[in-house]
Amino acid sequence: MTEFFPISSAMLRHPLLILEGLIILLSIEYSIFFLNRYLKTDKRKDGIIGAWGFFFLCLASMVLFFMIADFFLVDPDIREVIVNIGYLFMGLGALYFVLNIERELNLKHRIFTIILAVLFAFLLIDYFYFQLILDFVIIEPSTLTYFCWIPFIILLIFYIFKLTSKIKGGKWKINVYGFIIGFFILGTAFFFTADFMTVLTNAVSRLIGDIMILVGISSISILFVGLPSFQEFEWKKHIRKILIIHKSGICLADHDFKEISDDSIGDSQFIAGGLTGISQMITEIVQEKDQDGVKKRLEVMDHKDVKLIFQYGDKLTAVMIVDLNLDIYKFKLNKLIKYIESLYSDLLDDWDPDKVFQFKPVNSIVQRFFS
Q1: To 10 degrees, what angle do helices 76-104 and 47-72 make?
Q2: For residues 222 and 225, what is the distance between their CA atoms, to the nearest angstrom?
C-alpha cells in the first residue's frame, strides 16, 4: 500500500490538492466562527458551540497532516509518522467533543468521556513510546482512532435522539434532519478517503470523499447554528423575576419565580425606577443607532451570577432577571409586552399614575405566559 504514495496521478493530484486545501480553509473558517461565538456567549449555555469550534480545528489539522503525508513524502516511515500525528488530532477532537456533549446532556458519570480518555491515552503511549522509541506498535494508531470514534458516534446519536424528542417546531426538525444527513455524508466521506480505498480506486474514491467532506462539514455547520441548546428547553428553571415597567419608571407588575416576599412591591418600585434610569443613561451615553436610525437601548446587563434582560415596547419595558441569557426569553418577553400593551391600550394611552392598581391582573398574565 505504501508504494502508492505519494499520490502522483497526473489527472487527480492537482484537483485533490485544491479540494483538500479548501477543506482545511473551510474547517478553519468554521472553527473561528464557532469559537468566536462561544467566547461571546455564556459558557454554561454554549459549551457545545466551543466543542464544534475545536472539532473543526482538529479536522483541519488532521487533513493538513494527511495531505503532507500522501502528496509530498516519499519515505514510508516518515509518512507513517506524519499520518499518525493526523490520527492524534482526530482522537483529540473526538475526546473534547464527547466531554462537552456529556456536559450538555447533564450526564453525571461521564462514562463515554472516561472510555475515550483511556483510548486516547493508550493511543498516545502506543505512538510516542512504542512506535517512536521502541519502533513497534501494539495496535495501529489508525485502528485505535477508529475505536475512539465508536463512543463519539454512539453519544452523538443519543444527543440527536434526545434533541429531536424535545423539539416540536417544524423549522428545528428540518435543521436536525439536515444535520443528521450532513454527519452521515461526513462519515461516509472518511470511508472513501481511507488509504485502502484510495489505493483500490487509484485515488478516485478520495476525490469523491473530499467533495463529500466539503458538503458534510458545510451542512453540519450551517444547520447546527440554527439548533437550540438543551438549556433552551429548560428555560423555566432559570427565571428569577420579571418586572413590567411603564416608561415613566413605575412598576406595574412584579412576579417572583424563586421566592415571594411581603415587601416585594415596595422593592420593585425602587428597582423599576433604578433600572429605567440606568437604561436611559446608557442609551444617551452610547449614542448608537440601529439600521432604522433608532437609538440602541440596553438589552442585557450582567451582574455577578445573574443576567438582566430588557425588552422594550411602545410604552412598557419588561425586565427579566435570570441565571442564563437564553434566546427564548427575548421571544417570550416580546410577545408578553405586545399582549399587555394591546390589552391595556386605553389606560396606557391616557396614562394616570394614580390608576396603577388597575394593572394588578398583569401579575397573573405574566405567570400564565411563563408557567
Answers
A1: 170
A2: 6
Cell numbers standing for residue 369: 405566559
pLDDT of residue 263: 45
Query: Which residue is it, cell 425606577?
Result: 273
Per-residue confidence (pLDDT) for residue 1, from 0 to 100:
56
Residue numbers of the domain that contains 319: 235-369
CATH number, domain at 227? 1.20.1070
In 3D space, the residue among 310, 303, 358 whose CA is nearest the CA of residue 336 turns out to be 310
Q: How many Cα neighbours within 13 Å face the side chain of 26? A: 19
Amino acid at 194: A
Name the grid cell of 103: 456536559
Cα–Cα distance, 47 to 67 (Å, whole number): 30
Q: Which three cell numbers stand for residue 51?
A: 466543542
Q: How many domains does the chain have?
A: 2
**pLDDT of res. 256:** 84
Estimate to the nearest angstrom the gap between the alpha carbon of 357 and the chain centroid.
Answer: 44
CATH number for the domain spanning 351: value is 3.30.450.70
Same domain as 174, residue 85:
yes
Residue spans of the chain under pLDDT 70: 1-3, 42-46, 131-132, 136-137, 166-173, 225-230, 259-296
Residue with cell 507513517: 80
Do 123 and 241 sit in the same domain of this protein? no
